From TrEMBL, chains A, B:
<dbReference type="GO" id="GO:0001216">
    <property type="term" value="F:DNA-binding transcription activator activity"/>
</dbReference>
<keyword id="KW-0805">Transcription regulation</keyword>
<dbReference type="InterPro" id="IPR000843">
    <property type="entry name" value="HTH_LacI"/>
</dbReference>
<protein>
    <submittedName>
        <fullName>LacI family transcriptional regulator</fullName>
    </submittedName>
</protein>
<dbReference type="GO" id="GO:0000976">
    <property type="term" value="F:transcription cis-regulatory region binding"/>
</dbReference>
<feature type="domain" description="HTH lacI-type">
    <location>
        <begin position="6"/>
        <end position="60"/>
    </location>
</feature>
<dbReference type="Pfam" id="PF00532">
    <property type="entry name" value="Peripla_BP_1"/>
</dbReference>
<dbReference type="Pfam" id="PF00356">
    <property type="entry name" value="LacI"/>
</dbReference>
<dbReference type="InterPro" id="IPR000394">
    <property type="entry name" value="RNA_pol_sigma_54"/>
</dbReference>
<dbReference type="InterPro" id="IPR010982">
    <property type="entry name" value="Lambda_DNA-bd_dom_sf"/>
</dbReference>
<dbReference type="InterPro" id="IPR028082">
    <property type="entry name" value="Peripla_BP_I"/>
</dbReference>
<keyword id="KW-0238">DNA-binding</keyword>
<keyword id="KW-0804">Transcription</keyword>
<dbReference type="InterPro" id="IPR001761">
    <property type="entry name" value="Peripla_BP/Lac1_sug-bd_dom"/>
</dbReference>
<dbReference type="GO" id="GO:0016987">
    <property type="term" value="F:sigma factor activity"/>
</dbReference>
Length: 339, 339
């Protein structure tokens, strides 16, 4: 275990003076003789004395630190959001500590409790896939700790949020595929309860309807969030006689699965099968052919979330009102859908 | 700002009893009448009273949290190391908080101070590229806080470390290229002061010597850690009359630069130019052709670092000795070097 840190009491004992004299000498209080002040300060330096920061925090109730809970640390989207948060926090002279829920609700609760125990000045959080109840979120609110949610949020929570306009983004991606000549667009998505999935589904359907195209529910495939599962789902779709000529996927992982399946069947991308993913993961650019995707501007998401949080922490007028900031996604047309 | 949390004093005032009675009632001390105990506990629940965790930490000097400082959060290597650390921390019921130095020494110092202020029970750290002095590391030692370094370390520091055997890894990669028929192997590396670069250079030269090949210093190219810079360096090398027939790069970024350059010049990979990278980044697998690379087993690095740290925190016999754990890298032969 750690050596016990040097305290004011240690200094007082060593110099045979009172604790309150040491305390005042360290603050350079002129009531204390210059000689004593110098002796105290010299010894404090020698012993590497540091004011106990927990005691300081206990007094001021400020840690100058914000806590960020992300569903995964191994994700370029969340990593870039954290970068955006750090940029704003740097300006305010705040530290950012990150913890990951690993997509588990139980771990998310632990992360939140850990941050509350550490008296973070504010918390920014994106819900895990497994999070279905919100007691831990309510606890942050009950304790009056400023909080902002981003990306994965819930309609049930009365908290300021930074969200993507998922419906508009999906609408843009699917419209682009239709304008490139696609007639049968498959949609690879995840479990039904996920809000962003439902919103992207809305955009997908709206784009089809607008162009007078029929919605064929057999082209909508739900899979796990793995390349392997998406590949299998895509193989199944592509082996049908009336196979899809385009894929829109809810994330890049699933889009990579679709591209892998098309390649395996010897289908040309984008000529026979066009593909658009979602989230502009690093690998999307280096796929062969390079993969079209939606750039969600994660750094901006992070910056907006941090700005909302600092507004609350600084108690700006209206900062307590529940706000929703929408960060738009941009369509990045690369080779996989250029036709 | 946060609402002031409810304290024992608030409860005492509301019930018109003493603070020490409330304190003992909350601990269910039988010296206090059952009636009072029940009244206190009921009110504490209603007011959502929580023992002040900073006060608790102040007493026990334990936060059940370990802090991890990484040079970058946007990196699959560091993200995977963090996952490994989390796996071990989970077993011990500890939280993991991560902060990023963004490759800046100043930020690394702030991260360390932040963690020390928060009274982390231990710190795991990988040095930033810019770190050239070590006062902040010495401070962790002076305060007696358990610490382990990984990956980017320094010979100047007397601290337990988890390191890669970089020389052996580079030796394996270059030997593989020679055995595939390469006669002129370029080495893309970074600035000279970086320890891991020097070690990989050693392995590169040793492999060449062992096979009786001459070391041509003009084939060693130092570049920034960007795809763009590596591409330009590679273009220059490949345009020479006696161009290299293989590249070994100090990381996957630089190897991608080499592949991009070869493709731009219409050279066939691996037939005319073979490439091996380093660190098994996510995108390496999805390159076309898929890229050979060294897998540094980052999760194992994280697990070993966490194990060393918990040994120190639990004060196991010999845990204070400076240890060095070597995690070996595995060569992943993919298409870019298979010939």
């Amino acid at each position: 275990m750690a050596n016990k840190p040097v305290t004011i009491k240690d200094i007082a004992e060593k110099l045979n003076i009172s604790v309150s004299t040491v305390s005042r000498a360290l603050k350079n209080n002129p009531e204390i003789s210059l000689q004593t002040r110098e002796a105290v300060q010299k010894l404090a330096k020698e012993l590497k004395y540091q004011p106990n920061p927990l005691a300081v925090a206990l007094k001021t109730q400020k840690s100058n630190t914000i806590g960020v809970v992300v569903p995964q640390i191994v994700s370029s989207f969340y990593a870039s959001v954290v970068k955006g948060i750090e940029q704003v926090a740097d300006e305010f002279g705040y530290q950012v500590f990150v913890s990951s829920s690993n997509e588990k609700m139980e771990k998310e609760e632990k992360n939140v409790n850990g941050f509350l125990n550490m008296r973070m000045d504010g918390i920014i959080l994106s819900l895990s896939r497994a999070t279905s109840t919100y007691d831990h979120i309510h606890k942050i609110q009950d304790m009056g700790v400023p909080m902002v949610l981003f990306d994965r949020t819930s309609k049930e929570l009365e908290v300021s949020k930074v969200v993507a306009d998922d419906a508009a983004a999906a609408h843009a991606a699917v419209t682009h595929l239709i304008e490139g000549g696609a007639k049968r667009i498959a949609f690879l998505t995840g479990p039904e309860y996920m809000l962003f999935g439902r919103n992207r589904m809305r955009g997908y359907k709206k784009a089809l309807k607008e162009k007078g195209m029929e919605i064929d529910e057999t082209l909508i495939s739900r899979c796990d969030f793995t390349v392997e599962d998406a590949k299998n789902a895509s193989l199944e779709l592509l082996k049908r006689s009336n196979r899809p000529d385009a894929f829109f996927a809810i994330n890049d992982e699933l889009a990579i699965g679709a591209m892998t399946a098309a390649k395996e069947l010897g289908l040309k991308i984008p000529d026979e099968v066009a593909v658009v993913g979602f989230s502009n993961s690093r690998r999307s650019r280096y796929m062969e052919p390079s993969m079209s995707t939606m750039d969600q501007n994660p750094k901006q998401v992070g910056r907006e979330a941090a700005k909302l949080l600092f507004d609350q922490m600084e108690d700006k007028p209206g900062a307590k009102d529940v706000k929703e900031v929408v960060v738009h996604a941009d369509l990045l047309v690369r080779t996989s859908s250029e036709r």
